[in-house]
């Protein structure tokens, strides 16, 4: 960043999550990502610099290795003039969703990350004026735990996302249960993937956002008040999928455009744009492939088809790689928590060893190499506990990352476009796929994960599953909706 030239008016609010806030440059395809903290949480500038540098190193040395060069953008840590950050913070404050204002942007250190703006990702051969559509999906955990340490039977049948939905609605985080189930998206089966994507479009929560030319056009600006207006969305999408605008408007057109979007995203998700080396992880796909709570599989069961077709994901596609990293959670939190306690006891006795254990970094080549040990035989050592704890943290990171798909109309002359192209029914779209929010989950969050896991399962088992038989009208409705998708898509 050129210090003297930083002008807050050139940047606009772009979005935020629980831990960071992002502003985008109005002309250039870059964003600044700032850390956020609860008010009065004092962190020194040095600590913040180190935290950001750890994020960059973790991306470079670990996540690039697992996901492949093409999918990961690590960015760099930049130092900004404090006056610029202060003015920027004031400028964007009114645009922040209320539900995110429990934390403040760090304005004291002057450090941030500078990254490519993935909602406007262009290659140098790409004409700047071409429109660009970007779909961001936070797919969450795509497998059902296979660990023998799992004590709640329900966890072997229903995925964590579907169980958590009920707790989220009960606590007021979202208004209604989503029909999205990550296992459908990760299935590799086109019908199931279409159903999952359509469900995300119906109830985006914080799992789906759509940007057009870098502006958010669909999905939650404010976490608690998402608006699902498919007509408006279709209006935005028409130029991408029906460039000649050949279709009349109306519900038929809306449905056709949404269907086209769902088909294109599915094809992109199944594509393998990674030319890098084969992934280092081979945990193997284990556990049930279907979540019993997914309306899609319930609908199949009603039709007497017990298991949906097994398609599997092509190796090399981003979903496959994400799932592999997620499956580094080999023991489940129930098997992991005692190992965390083993490390805690060790650290109580030898606190000076924390640095040597690399709990807070550095996330270097040596850290990465230790993650490749997939053995689950506990020899009672701290070394075993540490490897499993670090693998769990990496897996949790992959369970919470987002996938960005950028689409642009492709020129007739394919040789001028460097990116792969997906043919939609009316147009050709050049695309790129990236993964974001790859910040390693903190060691300290493990006790919280343990408690939350039990809360989610207990709530689901006691409240939802017990009442399940009584909810016939809702189930019938779900079944009808699925039938529609099964036959029409
Ligand atoms: O625990 P989960 O599954 O609810 O995930 C949290 C997310 O909630 P979600 O379920 O996606 O709505 C949560 O997302 P929101 O703040 O709800 O948008 C965060 O991503 C959180 O990560 P961190 O603590 O900020 O590092 C996430 O926490 P981690 O569990 O990944 O640490
Ligand atoms: N490089 C990028 N390009 C474009 N948009 C981005 C980029 N990085 C982040 N964003 C946007 O900013 C939002 C918040 O960023 P991010 O997910 O990293 O925040 P977070 O606080 O770490 O998330 P979480 O709540 O999962 O902890 C993203 O959902 C995405 O829409």
From TrEMBL:
<keyword id="KW-0808">Transferase</keyword>
<comment type="function">
    <text>Phosphorylates Ins(1,3,4,5,6)P5 at position 2 to form Ins(1,2,3,4,5,6)P6 (InsP6 or phytate). InsP6 is involved in many processes such as mRNA export, non-homologous end-joining, endocytosis, ion channel regulation. It also protects cells from TNF-alpha-induced apoptosis.</text>
</comment>
<dbReference type="GO" id="GO:0060090">
    <property type="term" value="F:molecular adaptor activity"/>
</dbReference>
<keyword id="KW-0418">Kinase</keyword>
<keyword id="KW-0067">ATP-binding</keyword>
<comment type="similarity">
    <text>Belongs to the IPK1 type 2 family.</text>
</comment>
<keyword id="KW-0539">Nucleus</keyword>
<dbReference type="InterPro" id="IPR009286">
    <property type="entry name" value="Ins_P5_2-kin"/>
</dbReference>
<protein>
    <recommendedName>
        <fullName>Inositol-pentakisphosphate 2-kinase</fullName>
        <ecNumber>2.7.1.158</ecNumber>
    </recommendedName>
</protein>
<dbReference type="GO" id="GO:0005730">
    <property type="term" value="C:nucleolus"/>
</dbReference>
<dbReference type="InterPro" id="IPR043001">
    <property type="entry name" value="IP5_2-K_N_lobe"/>
</dbReference>
<dbReference type="GO" id="GO:0032958">
    <property type="term" value="P:inositol phosphate biosynthetic process"/>
</dbReference>
<keyword id="KW-0963">Cytoplasm</keyword>
<dbReference type="GO" id="GO:0035299">
    <property type="term" value="F:inositol-1,3,4,5,6-pentakisphosphate 2-kinase activity"/>
</dbReference>
<dbReference type="GO" id="GO:1901838">
    <property type="term" value="P:positive regulation of transcription of nucleolar large rRNA by RNA polymerase I"/>
</dbReference>
<dbReference type="GO" id="GO:0005737">
    <property type="term" value="C:cytoplasm"/>
</dbReference>
<dbReference type="GO" id="GO:0005524">
    <property type="term" value="F:ATP binding"/>
</dbReference>
<keyword id="KW-0547">Nucleotide-binding</keyword>
<dbReference type="Pfam" id="PF06090">
    <property type="entry name" value="Ins_P5_2-kin"/>
</dbReference>
């Amino acid at each position: 960043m050129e210090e003297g030239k930083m002008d807050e008016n050139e940047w606009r609010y772009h979005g935020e999550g629980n831990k960071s806030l992002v502003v985008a440059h109005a002309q250039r395809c870059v964003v600044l990502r700032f850390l956020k903290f609860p008010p009065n949480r004092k962190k020194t500038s040095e600590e913040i610099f180190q935290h950001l540098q750890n994020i960059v190193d973790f991306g470079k040395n670990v996540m690039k290795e697992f996901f492949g060069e093409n999918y990961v953008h690590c960015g760099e840590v930049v130092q900004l003039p404090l006056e610029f950050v202060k003015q920027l913070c004031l400028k964007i404050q009114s645009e922040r969703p209320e539900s995110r204002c429990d934390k403040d942007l760090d304005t004291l250190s002057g450090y941030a990350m500078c990254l490519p703006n993935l909602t406007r990702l262009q290659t140098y051969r790409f004409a700047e004026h071409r429109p660009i559509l970007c779909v961001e999906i936070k797919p969450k955990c795509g497998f059902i735990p296979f660990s023998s340490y799992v004590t709640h039977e329900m966890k072997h049948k229903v995925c964590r996302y579907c169980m958590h939905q009920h707790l989220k609605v009960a606590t007021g985080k979202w208004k209604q249960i989503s029909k999205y189930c990550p296992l459908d998206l990760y299935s590799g089966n086109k019908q199931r993937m279409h159903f999952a994507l359509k469900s995300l479009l119906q109830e985006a929560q914080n799992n789906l956002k759509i940007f057009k030319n870098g502006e958010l056009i669909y999905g939650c600006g404010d976490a608690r008040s998402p608006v699902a207006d498919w007509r408006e969305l279709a209006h935005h999408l028409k130029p991408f999928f029906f460039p000649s605008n050949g279709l009349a408007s109306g519900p038929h057109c809306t449905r056709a455009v949404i269907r086209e979007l769902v088909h294109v995203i599915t094809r992109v998700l199944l594509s393998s744009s990674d030319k890098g080396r084969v992934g280092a992880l081979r945990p193997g796909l284990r556990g049930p492939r279907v979540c019993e709570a997914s309306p899609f599989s319930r609908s199949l069961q009603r039709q007497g088809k017990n298991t949906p077709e097994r398609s599997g994901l092509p190796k090399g596609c981003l979903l496959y790689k994400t799932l592999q990293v997620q499956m580094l959670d080999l023991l489940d939190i129930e098997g992991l928590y005692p190992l965390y306690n083993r490390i805690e006891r060790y650290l109580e006795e030898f606190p000076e060893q924390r640095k040597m254990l690399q709990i807070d970094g550095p996330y270097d080549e040596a850290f990465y190499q230790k993650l490749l040990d997939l053995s689950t035989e506990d020899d009672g050592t701290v070394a075993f506990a540490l490897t499993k704890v670090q693998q769990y943290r990496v897996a949790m990171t992959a369970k919470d990352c987002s996938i960005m798909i950028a689409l642009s109309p492709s020129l007739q002359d394919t040789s001028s476009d460097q990116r792969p192209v997906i043919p939609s029914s009316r147009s050709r779209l050049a695309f790129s796929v990236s993964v974001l929010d790859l910040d390693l989950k903190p060691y300290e969050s493990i006790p919280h994960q343990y408690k939350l896991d039990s809360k989610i399962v207990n709530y689901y088992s006691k409240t939802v599953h017990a009442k399940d038989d009584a909810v016939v009208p809702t189930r019938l409705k779900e079944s009808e909706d699925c039938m529609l998708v099964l036959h029409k898509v």
